[in-house]
Structure formats: C-alpha cells, structure tokens
Design a protein that fits this description.
Keywords: Signal. The protein is of the alpha+beta class and 211 residues long. It has 9 helices and 5 strands. The protein has one domain: Tgt2/MlaC (Nuclear Transport Factor 2, Chain: A, Roll).
Length: 211
C-alpha cells in the first residue's frame, strides 16, 4: 500500500480534536454525516493544494476547520489510554494533558501528508442501521485502483455525530495506539507523566500492522 497515501488518509481521520457539547439528537443519518466530513475535507485539500506545499500553518488550519468539530477526542483518549484512563491510574489533569498532546502530535506528524494530497476519491458502502449507539460507516478510498476500506465508528453526542474510532484495512487504530501507549509507559518505568510527554503515536506503523 502506498505509504504517503496511507499517511495522508490516516492524518485526515485521526487528527484528535476538542469534543463539543450537544443538546439534541443528531439530525443527520450516519452515512450523511460521514459524507459531509469527507467531502468537506477533500474539497478543501483540492482547492488549496498549491498553497499547502510549504505552508504548515495553512495545513493546520484545514485540519482544525474541517475535522475539529467532528472528532470525539475524549472518547479517543479513553480508548488509547486504556486502563490508564481510569481514576485508579491517572488524574483528570493527566488525561487532559494526554488529550492535548495526542492531538498536537498527530497534527504535527501528519500535516505534511495533507500538503501532498492528490486527487483521491472514495465510494461509500451500503449502510445497515442496526440500532447501535456506535454505528459504523465504511468508505472505500481509491488509490490508483487499490481500494482502502476505512470504517468510522461514531458516537451520538446529542446535536451531531462524532467520530470516536476508526478502522483502516481491518486494523483498529484506537487499539493499536493503545498498545503503543502501553509500551511507552513501560519504557518510561511506569511514570505516567513521562509517558504522556513522550508518547508519539505512529499511525503508519499501526496501519502496517497487518503486513
């Protein structure tokens, strides 16, 4: 699988953001929500492609404007921290710091991939509503004839859906990042503060896990 494309795709999905407060049931069906997010991001990447090559600030602006409102970063934090997200192992301040660091690291590491995004397309698989609180919508991203399936697991946050986890080519990225974080804690002798400060999620390694 093309490394740059996987990196770009993962960046598009995984940039961690601030979860919003909501008060009413989502008005959109899950597939419509995912299509809105994907189309909005792709259209910005295409429109601003020439401006992104040497402009990291512009790349970050696109991430924040087109992804920030749609990611449940608190849920993602709980998934990635695993047992360390409980009061037994961490404080609220540590969890908040982890969430902040995780978001910024992804933006920094994968911003360059946005700048190199080319004319990629996708198709949406038929959606089956099974009444789950965490519905899953799957897109097949097309890269030079190769289809890369990406499944978005959503969370009902009241006024809209938010993305709480994703699966790329059969790989649960939340779980892979959890394993990476646990290894980071171990390397830092169980010191959670040091592990949080040093954790560098490796999306490329996570996606390549299946190989």
């Amino acid at each position: 699988m093309n490394t740059l494309f996987k990196q770009t795709l993962t960046a598009s999905i995984l940039s961690t953001v601030i979860a919003g407060t909501a008060f009413a049931a989502p008005s959109e069906a899950p597939p419509a929500f995912v299509k809105k997010v994907a189309d909005g991001l792709i259209s910005r990447l295409k429109a601003d492609h020439s401006k992104l090559q040497n402009n990291p600030a512009a790349v970050k602006a696109i991430i924040r404007q087109n992804l920030d409102p749609y990611i449940d970063s608190q849920a993602f934090t709980r998934i990635v921290m695993g047992t360390y997200a409980t009061n037994q192992y961490s404080s609220a301040a540590q969890r908040a710091q982890f969430e902040k660091n995780f978001r910024e690291t992804l933006i920094e590491n994968y911003g360059s991939a946005f700048a190199k995004f080319t004319n990629q397309t996708y198709s949406m698989r038929p959606y089956k509503d099974n009444g789950s609180k965490n519905p899953v919508v799957t897109l097949d991203f097309n890269n030079n004839g190769e289809k890369i399936p990406v499944s978005f697991q959503l969370a009902d946050k009241g006024s809209q859906w938010k993305i709480r986890n994703i699966n790329v080519s059969g790989i649960d990225l939340g779980l892979q990042f959890r394993n990476q974080f646990a290894a980071t804690v171990k390397r830092n002798g169980g010191n959670l503060d040091k592990a949080i400060a040093n954790f560098k999620p490796d999306a490329e390694a996570a996606v390549d896990k299946k190989k």
